[in-house]
Amino acid sequence: MPTTTEPESKKLKMDDYPMSPDTEWPDAWLMPDQVEDQCAPNRLEPNVPVSAEQMRDLGICYWKMEDVDNYDYPIKAIPWDPKDAKDPKLQALRDARGYSYADIITVHPDHLPDFDLKIKAFFEEHIHDAEEIRYIVGGSGYFDVRNKEDKWVRVHVKKGDLMTLPEGIYHRFTCDEDHMIHAMRLFIGQPVWTPFNRPQEDHPSRKKYAELFLANEEKKEDGDTN
Ligand code: KMT
Protein backbone atom coordinates (compact mmCIF):
# COMPACT_ATOMS: atom_id res chain seq x y z
CA MET A 1 0.00 0.00 0.00
CA PRO A 2 1.36 3.48 -0.82
CA THR A 3 1.82 5.84 2.10
CA THR A 4 1.79 9.63 2.42
CA THR A 5 5.61 9.67 2.24
CA GLU A 6 5.51 8.49 -1.35
CA PRO A 7 5.49 10.90 -4.29
CA GLU A 8 2.22 12.65 -5.14
CA SER A 9 1.72 10.53 -8.26
CA LYS A 10 1.85 7.31 -6.25
CA LYS A 11 -0.57 8.37 -3.51
CA LEU A 12 -3.93 6.66 -3.44
CA LYS A 13 -6.44 8.64 -5.41
CA MET A 14 -10.19 8.77 -5.10
CA ASP A 15 -10.54 6.76 -8.29
CA ASP A 16 -8.93 3.88 -6.43
CA TYR A 17 -11.89 3.96 -4.10
CA PRO A 18 -15.21 4.24 -5.87
CA MET A 19 -18.17 3.90 -3.57
CA SER A 20 -18.65 0.41 -2.23
CA PRO A 21 -20.70 -2.14 -4.19
CA ASP A 22 -24.39 -2.41 -3.34
CA THR A 23 -23.92 -5.64 -1.39
CA GLU A 24 -21.72 -3.82 1.15
CA TRP A 25 -24.09 -0.91 1.84
CA PRO A 26 -25.77 -0.76 5.22
CA ASP A 27 -29.10 -2.42 5.79
CA ALA A 28 -31.95 0.08 5.37
CA TRP A 29 -35.73 -0.11 5.61
CA LEU A 30 -38.87 2.01 5.75
CA MET A 31 -40.13 2.85 9.23
CA PRO A 32 -43.41 4.26 10.58
CA ASP A 33 -43.87 7.99 11.17
CA GLN A 34 -44.55 7.52 14.87
CA VAL A 35 -42.47 5.24 17.11
CA GLU A 36 -42.61 4.43 20.81
CA ASP A 37 -38.96 3.52 21.21
CA GLN A 38 -36.58 5.42 18.93
CA CYS A 39 -33.78 2.89 19.56
CA ALA A 40 -35.81 -0.14 18.42
CA PRO A 41 -35.44 -1.24 14.78
CA ASN A 42 -38.99 -0.04 14.00
CA ARG A 43 -39.42 -1.98 10.76
CA LEU A 44 -42.76 -1.99 9.00
CA GLU A 45 -44.61 -5.29 8.93
CA PRO A 46 -43.86 -6.81 6.52
CA ASN A 47 -40.40 -5.28 6.27
CA VAL A 48 -39.84 -2.91 3.32
CA PRO A 49 -36.10 -2.88 2.48
CA VAL A 50 -34.49 0.18 0.89
CA SER A 51 -31.79 -0.53 -1.69
CA ALA A 52 -28.36 1.03 -2.11
CA GLU A 53 -29.61 2.53 -5.38
CA GLN A 54 -32.53 4.19 -3.60
CA MET A 55 -30.14 5.58 -0.98
CA ARG A 56 -27.82 6.94 -3.69
CA ASP A 57 -30.85 8.59 -5.33
CA LEU A 58 -31.35 10.54 -2.11
CA GLY A 59 -27.73 11.76 -2.31
CA ILE A 60 -26.23 9.37 0.22
CA CYS A 61 -22.65 8.19 -0.34
CA TYR A 62 -21.09 5.15 1.29
CA TRP A 63 -17.71 3.53 1.68
CA LYS A 64 -16.96 0.39 3.65
CA MET A 65 -13.71 0.88 5.57
CA GLU A 66 -12.43 -2.70 5.58
CA ASP A 67 -9.41 -1.97 7.73
CA VAL A 68 -11.16 -0.19 10.61
CA ASP A 69 -9.84 -2.80 13.07
CA ASN A 70 -6.22 -2.05 12.15
CA TYR A 71 -6.28 1.47 13.59
CA ASP A 72 -6.95 2.84 17.07
CA TYR A 73 -9.07 5.91 17.60
CA PRO A 74 -9.50 7.72 20.92
CA ILE A 75 -12.85 7.53 22.67
CA LYS A 76 -13.05 11.29 22.47
CA ALA A 77 -10.95 13.83 20.61
CA ILE A 78 -12.34 17.29 19.90
CA PRO A 79 -10.82 18.07 17.49
CA TRP A 80 -8.96 15.15 15.91
CA ASP A 81 -6.63 16.20 13.11
CA PRO A 82 -7.56 14.35 9.91
CA LYS A 83 -3.92 14.76 8.83
CA ASP A 84 -3.18 12.12 11.51
CA ALA A 85 -5.16 9.51 9.58
CA LYS A 86 -3.02 6.39 9.04
CA ASP A 87 -5.56 4.34 7.10
CA PRO A 88 -4.75 4.85 3.38
CA LYS A 89 -8.41 4.68 2.45
CA LEU A 90 -9.29 7.36 5.00
CA GLN A 91 -6.38 9.45 3.69
CA ALA A 92 -7.66 9.08 0.14
CA LEU A 93 -11.23 10.04 1.04
CA ARG A 94 -9.97 12.95 3.14
CA ASP A 95 -7.83 14.28 0.30
CA ALA A 96 -10.31 13.71 -2.50
CA ARG A 97 -13.26 15.22 -0.66
CA GLY A 98 -11.40 17.96 1.21
CA TYR A 99 -12.15 16.80 4.74
CA SER A 100 -10.08 19.28 6.74
CA TYR A 101 -11.63 18.96 10.21
CA ALA A 102 -12.56 15.96 12.32
CA ASP A 103 -13.52 15.06 15.82
CA ILE A 104 -14.25 11.76 17.50
CA ILE A 105 -17.09 11.21 19.92
CA THR A 106 -18.63 8.29 21.74
CA VAL A 107 -22.36 8.33 22.25
CA HIS A 108 -22.89 6.06 25.27
CA PRO A 109 -24.37 6.73 28.71
CA ASP A 110 -20.88 6.54 30.32
CA HIS A 111 -19.14 8.76 27.78
CA LEU A 112 -21.62 11.47 26.86
CA PRO A 113 -22.89 13.75 29.63
CA ASP A 114 -26.70 14.12 29.51
CA PHE A 115 -26.92 11.07 27.25
CA ASP A 116 -30.74 10.89 27.40
CA LEU A 117 -31.20 14.57 26.53
CA LYS A 118 -28.57 14.39 23.77
CA ILE A 119 -30.10 11.43 21.99
CA LYS A 120 -33.51 13.09 22.14
CA ALA A 121 -31.96 16.19 20.52
CA PHE A 122 -30.18 14.13 17.83
CA PHE A 123 -33.60 12.60 17.04
CA GLU A 124 -35.24 15.93 16.15
CA GLU A 125 -35.80 16.09 12.40
CA HIS A 126 -33.41 18.66 10.93
CA ILE A 127 -31.15 19.70 8.07
CA HIS A 128 -27.62 21.11 7.98
CA ASP A 129 -26.13 23.66 5.63
CA ALA A 130 -23.28 21.27 4.80
CA GLU A 131 -22.63 17.63 4.06
CA GLU A 132 -22.80 15.36 7.12
CA ILE A 133 -19.92 12.88 7.17
CA ARG A 134 -19.78 10.08 9.70
CA TYR A 135 -17.18 7.33 9.97
CA ILE A 136 -18.30 4.71 12.47
CA VAL A 137 -15.20 3.34 14.19
CA GLY A 138 -17.13 1.32 16.80
CA GLY A 139 -20.65 0.38 17.83
CA SER A 140 -23.70 1.11 15.72
CA GLY A 141 -26.72 3.36 15.37
CA TYR A 142 -29.45 4.59 13.07
CA PHE A 143 -29.51 7.52 10.68
CA ASP A 144 -33.06 8.18 9.52
CA VAL A 145 -33.53 10.15 6.29
CA ARG A 146 -36.67 11.25 4.47
CA ASN A 147 -37.14 9.64 1.07
CA LYS A 148 -38.69 11.24 -2.02
CA GLU A 149 -42.18 10.41 -0.75
CA ASP A 150 -41.28 12.04 2.59
CA LYS A 151 -41.28 8.67 4.36
CA TRP A 152 -38.63 7.76 6.91
CA VAL A 153 -35.84 5.44 5.78
CA ARG A 154 -33.82 3.94 8.64
CA VAL A 155 -30.15 3.23 7.80
CA HIS A 156 -28.33 0.94 10.23
CA VAL A 157 -24.71 2.08 10.37
CA LYS A 158 -22.07 -0.08 12.03
CA LYS A 159 -18.34 -0.18 12.71
CA GLY A 160 -16.44 0.33 9.44
CA ASP A 161 -19.17 2.35 7.70
CA LEU A 162 -18.33 5.77 6.29
CA MET A 163 -21.48 7.46 5.13
CA THR A 164 -22.29 10.97 3.97
CA LEU A 165 -25.65 12.71 3.94
CA PRO A 166 -26.07 15.59 1.51
CA GLU A 167 -26.60 19.18 2.58
CA GLY A 168 -30.28 19.94 3.08
CA ILE A 169 -31.63 16.39 3.53
CA TYR A 170 -34.13 15.99 6.39
CA HIS A 171 -32.63 13.50 8.82
CA ARG A 172 -32.09 12.51 12.45
CA PHE A 173 -29.90 10.13 14.45
CA THR A 174 -30.42 7.71 17.27
CA CYS A 175 -28.45 4.99 19.00
CA ASP A 176 -29.79 1.50 18.47
CA GLU A 177 -30.60 -0.85 21.34
CA ASP A 178 -26.87 -1.28 22.16
CA HIS A 179 -26.66 2.42 23.08
CA MET A 180 -23.09 2.75 21.87
CA ILE A 181 -21.60 4.40 18.83
CA HIS A 182 -18.02 5.60 18.41
CA ALA A 183 -17.86 7.96 15.46
CA MET A 184 -15.54 10.29 13.62
CA ARG A 185 -17.34 13.40 12.40
CA LEU A 186 -15.56 14.92 9.43
CA PHE A 187 -16.09 18.34 7.93
CA ILE A 188 -15.00 20.45 4.98
CA GLY A 189 -13.68 23.73 6.42
CA GLN A 190 -14.70 25.12 9.80
CA PRO A 191 -17.25 22.80 11.41
CA VAL A 192 -20.79 24.07 11.84
CA TRP A 193 -23.04 21.52 13.52
CA THR A 194 -26.10 23.79 13.75
CA PRO A 195 -29.30 21.79 13.20
CA PHE A 196 -32.14 23.62 11.47
CA ASN A 197 -35.26 21.84 12.62
CA ARG A 198 -38.06 21.10 10.17
CA PRO A 199 -39.81 22.96 8.55
CA GLN A 200 -37.00 24.58 6.52
CA GLU A 201 -38.56 24.78 3.04
CA ASP A 202 -37.16 28.29 2.48
CA HIS A 203 -33.66 27.50 3.73
CA PRO A 204 -31.14 27.75 0.83
CA SER A 205 -29.72 24.32 1.65
CA ARG A 206 -33.18 22.76 1.56
CA LYS A 207 -33.93 24.47 -1.75
CA LYS A 208 -30.64 23.19 -3.15
CA TYR A 209 -31.43 19.65 -1.98
CA ALA A 210 -34.93 19.81 -3.44
CA GLU A 211 -33.56 21.05 -6.77
CA LEU A 212 -30.85 18.38 -6.93
CA PHE A 213 -32.72 15.36 -5.63
CA LEU A 214 -36.47 15.99 -5.57
CA ALA A 215 -37.17 18.13 -8.65
CA ASN A 216 -37.85 15.19 -10.98
CA GLU A 217 -40.22 13.65 -8.44
CA GLU A 218 -42.22 16.89 -8.20
CA LYS A 219 -42.45 17.00 -12.00
CA LYS A 220 -43.61 13.37 -12.04
CA GLU A 221 -46.32 14.18 -9.47
CA ASP A 222 -47.47 17.07 -11.69
CA GLY A 223 -47.80 14.59 -14.58
CA ASP A 224 -44.90 16.19 -16.50
CA THR A 225 -42.90 13.28 -17.87
CA ASN A 226 -40.45 15.37 -19.92
C1 KMT B 1 -25.49 13.63 14.62
O1 KMT B 1 -25.21 14.13 13.55
O2 KMT B 1 -26.65 13.56 15.00
C2 KMT B 1 -24.42 13.14 15.43
O3 KMT B 1 -23.37 13.65 15.35
C3 KMT B 1 -24.74 12.01 16.32
C4 KMT B 1 -23.60 11.22 16.67
S1 KMT B 1 -22.58 10.70 15.37
C5 KMT B 1 -22.98 9.08 15.09
So, CATH architecture? Sandwich
How much is the average pLDDT? Answer: 91
Low-confidence parts, pLDDT < 50 over ≥5 residues? 1-14
The shape is globular
Based on CA atoms alone, the radius of gyration comes out at: 18 Å
Secondary structure tally: strands: 10
Pfam families: ARD (PF03079)
InterPro entries: ARD (IPR004313), ARD_euk (IPR027496), RmlC-like_jellyroll (IPR014710), RmlC_Cupin_sf (IPR011051)
Organism: Fistulifera solaris (Oleaginous diatom)
Protein name: Acireductone dioxygenase
Mind explaining what this structure looks like?
The chain has 226 residues and is an alpha+beta fold. It has one domain (22-31, 40-211): Jelly Rolls (Sandwich). Helices cover 19% and strands 25% of the residues. The chain is built from four helices and ten strands. It has helices at residues 52-57, 88-97, 115-122, 204-221, and strands at 28-30, 61-64, 101-107, 126-127, 132-146, 152-158, 161-165, 171-175, 181-187, 196-197. Strands 1, 2, 3, 5, 6, 7, 8 and 9 form an eight-stranded antiparallel sheet that branches. A two-stranded antiparallel ribbon has the order 4-10. Strand 5 and strand 6 form a beta hairpin. The chain is globular. Residues 1-14 have low confidence and may be disordered.
